[in-house]
Structures are given as C-alpha cells and as structure tokens.
Amino acid sequence: MLGVDLKGKTMAIQGFGNAGQFAALLAHEILGLKLVAASDSKGGILNPRGLDPRQVVEYKLKKGSLQGFPGADPITNEQLLEMEVTVLFPAALENVITDSNASKVRCRISCELANGPTTPEADEILHANNVFVIPDFLANAGGVTVSYFEQVQNTYNFYWPLDEVHRRLDEKMSRAFHGVYQMHQREKVNMRQAAYLVSVARVAEACKLRGWV
User: Fold this and answer.
1) pLDDT digits (tens, 9 = 90+) for 85-113
2) Are strands 73-75 and 43-51 parallel, antiparallel or unpaired?
3) Gyration radius (Cα) of the chain, Å
4) Which of 19, 55, 167, 195 maximizes the CB count within 10 A of its CB?
C-alpha cells in the first residue's frame, strides 16, 4: 500500500514479551525485516548492523532480560521509540507515544502490538508527520481471531490442521486491513479513526439486520 519493499529494512521492538518475540521472528522470516533494536522493562539492546532474532529470543528466555546481550550496545526504551527505522513495534505498555515525544518518532510504520501504546494527541501528530500507524485493535487482533476459530472447532467437534488455521487467519486479517485502509483513504482520516468507523458501521449493520433498530 505504501510502496515500501520491507526486505532488508530495519525494525525496532519496544517490549520483548510474547508478542514482541513473535514479531521479531515472524517479521524477519516472512517480511525480511532486520532487527536492529529491542527492549524490555530493564532496558534495551542496539546493533545497527542487525541482531539475530532467534538468538535474541533464546537469550531473553534463558536470562529473563535483554541486558548484556553480546555484540549489542545498551539503549533506553525512550531512545528506541525515537530511532529512525522502517517499522516500529510498540509491544510493551500503553501510552508510551504521547504528545511529548510523538514529534520525535521517525519510523515509517508503527505497528501496535501493545494495547493503547499511542495517545489520541500523538495519533494526530504521527498522522501529520506521515507515520503510518496500524492500530492496536487491528494489528494485534490475530490472537482473539484464532480463539474464535478454536471456539468454532470445539462447537463442531471437528478440528482443522494448522495450515488451515493459518490460511483462515491470513484471509480474515487481510480483509480487515484492506477494509480499514480503504476507509482511511476514502474519509481522509488516520488509520485508528478509520478502524473505528469500520467497526461501528459493522455493529450498526448487524443491529439493523437483527431488527434491533
């Protein structure tokens, strides 16, 4: 959509729990992104030449922290958010990108894996500065979508192979993204506002079809 070839481009991940670890592994494996920085609650690590995502994940799981990872320099969570990278994954706490630091965020894409990492005021600043935000309740909705798949399978007592789960997840998430992106283009609003417009319209339509309104 943005005309950006992500292969070989850089990513930084703030928050290296379950979501951050899978982002490091899958973004490298599927998209070819290069991990240059990652952080957790105790601090972060940086290597502009690139970090091996598998080694970083193994180190985190073994040590419980990223501190002291060999071949990397220390970096704070605040510094990581302001790095010039192609993709930033805020995957830690809410309200880490605010009106006080949003103007310093220099990524091209912010893919929100945490819940509520960006304040409404920061959203407007990022949008004005051409930072493309994939909002939290779109970007991190894969987990709850697969939970729905699990509920469906349990109801039918018929279970799908893993590749079928992946296929259905890809289909649903891709359709959701394109719906939000089209709303973003049509209404000239930021991606979070577009996501709300899509979701509210769907709820309204469902209420109408059920005869509630």
Assistant:
1) 999 999 999 999 999 999 999 999 999 99
2) antiparallel
3) 18
4) 195
